[in-house]
Specification:
36% of the residues lie in helices and 23% in strands. The protein has 6 helices and 8 strands.
Length: 284
């Protein structure tokens, strides 16, 4: 078998098998990292989502900066007054397979800073040029409870007045003239509660998906190419050994020249047909 593997063509096969193993090992590693990311996200959500709410000032000290990774989905509460004139519609937001608007309203706090509140989702109006009707937020002082989410990326789109392409807090701050904290609240409840409000967001998805199973499948595939090459090389070596052994027996019978008296002449051994394989046809 090793004499077969030393041939240039089979060395190329071995190189391809090793390359295949490297690729599948890295694909398995990528799926494993995706699985670990999903596990970390699930653990973070489960740790923060149902925890007792804390004052927003304990997490966000003031404007500027970013929401720490460990405080995402942190359940907080804040008290202030809604700046209804600064209400904005965030376009192209899906909810249960339907697209509409997220309604964001700044909540002005006692220290003069403001916290962006995502009050929920409303369906698109029948006409694209028309904004949908939105239930009014509570007037006067209100205490909101919800989950902290980081500012979204600025999509760089020019939008009509009072509309946003994403919940981009710096852009909302520029449009409203308010000093906004660097994260927004995904609203859970308001006190006093209004008669109606936009539809609440669905709980976050904490399913892990199939990344772990895919990683195992890729890693089990790593040695397949090498095994195939070794099995084929072994079979080629065995076939060549049988053919060379048959030729040696045939030449010995012819070279003896004499047949013992009274003995039947030896019948020539039928030559075993050579097996033709795909790789032999390719070389022909």
């Amino acid at each position: 078998m090793f004499s077969v593997l030393r041939r240039p063509r089979w060395l190329a096969y071995l190189a391809l098998a090793v390359l295949f193993g490297i690729i599948t090992a890295n694909l398995g590693l990528w799926q494993w990292h995706r699985h670990e990311e999903k596990v970390e996200r699930r653990d973070l959500i489960e740790r923060n989502y149902d925890a007792a709410p804390v004052p927003v000032g304990d997490v966000l000290s003031g404007p500027g900066g970013e929401l720490p990774e460990g405080d995402q989905w942190r359940r907080v509460e804040a008290t202030g007054t809604y700046a209804v004139d600064a209400q904005h519609w965030v376009r192209n937001r899906p909810h249960l397979g339907v697209y509409g608007f997220e309604i964001v309203v700044p909540l002005v706090l006692e220290d003069g800073t403001a916290l962006t509140v995502d009050r929920g989702w409303v369906r698109n109006a029948p006409v694209a040029a028309q904004l949908p009707e939105v239930p009014d937020p509570p007037s006067g002082e209100v205490t909101v409870t919800g989950w902290l989410r980081p500012s979204e990326q600025d999509l760089g789109r020019d939008m009509p007045e009072q509309q946003l392409a994403s919940i981009d807090i710096p852009r909302l701050s520029a449009a409203s003239g308010l000093e906004l904290l660097p994260a927004y609240i995904l609203l859970e409840s308001e006190d006093p509660a209004p008669a109606e409000r936009p539809e609440a967001a669905e709980p976050p998805d904490t399913l892990l998906g199939s990344h772990f199973a895919y990683a195992i499948q890729w890693w089990l595939t790593v040695p397949v190419g090498l095994i195939l090459v070794l099995v084929m090389a072994r079979q080629i070596a065995r076939d060549e050994a049988e053919e060379s052994g048959g030729r040696a027996v045939g030449s010995g019978a012819v070279g003896s020249g004499r047949v013992a008296r009274g003995a039947e002449p030896a019948q020539p051994k039928a030559k075993k047909p050579k097996k033709v394989r795909i790789w032999d046809e390719e070389d022909a």
